[in-house]
Design brief:
This protein is mainly alpha-helical. The chain has three helices and no strands. It has one domain. Helices cover 69% and strands 0% of the residues. It is elongated and about 60 Å long.
Length: 137
């Protein structure tokens, strides 16, 4: 009886696939976790005043995770850039190009959210050392 798990013999992901996976993970986190909190804080939808500090603290937590995921995505891009030898097959070149475009789209979302998150966190924590610097991502 030799039933093998499909994950048991998996090869390491290529740099192209790694970048796609990291960019997708970051995009998913930003869209599913950060955007709803930012929207709620911006519009104060269904947010009683007494829950504002909790929502700001939650934004700090989800943003911290977003920063970590952004670092993972950027590291995956660096790995793709440093891959030696350079991919020769047209499929590898096309996949690398797709991965770079997806990462670029995620970067646009990341930067747009940074412009919205930074003032919200600065308002919540005005004495924090990063409150005056919005380039923390």
């Amino acid at each position: 009886m030799s039933a093998c798990s499909p994950h048991q013999f998996s090869a390491p992901a290529t740099p192209e696939v790694s970048l796609l996976l990291r960019a997708h993970s970051e995009q998913h986190w930003l869209s599913r976790e950060v955007v709803p909190v930012v929207r709620q804080l911006d519009t104060r939808e269904e947010l009683p005043e007494e829950q504002l500090p909790a929502a700001q603290a939650y934004l700090e937590v989800v943003w911290s995770e977003a920063v970590r995921r952004a670092g993972d995505t950027d590291k995956a891009l660096t790995c793709l850039d440093l891959t030696l030898p350079a991919p020769e097959s047209p499929e590898c070149i096309a996949l690398a190009a797709r991965a770079r475009r997806y990462r670029a789209a995620v970067l646009v979302l990341r930067e747009m959210l940074l412009r919205r998150v930074a003032p919200l966190l600065a308002a919540a924590y005005p004495t924090a050392p990063w409150a005056s610097n919005s380039s923390s991502l």
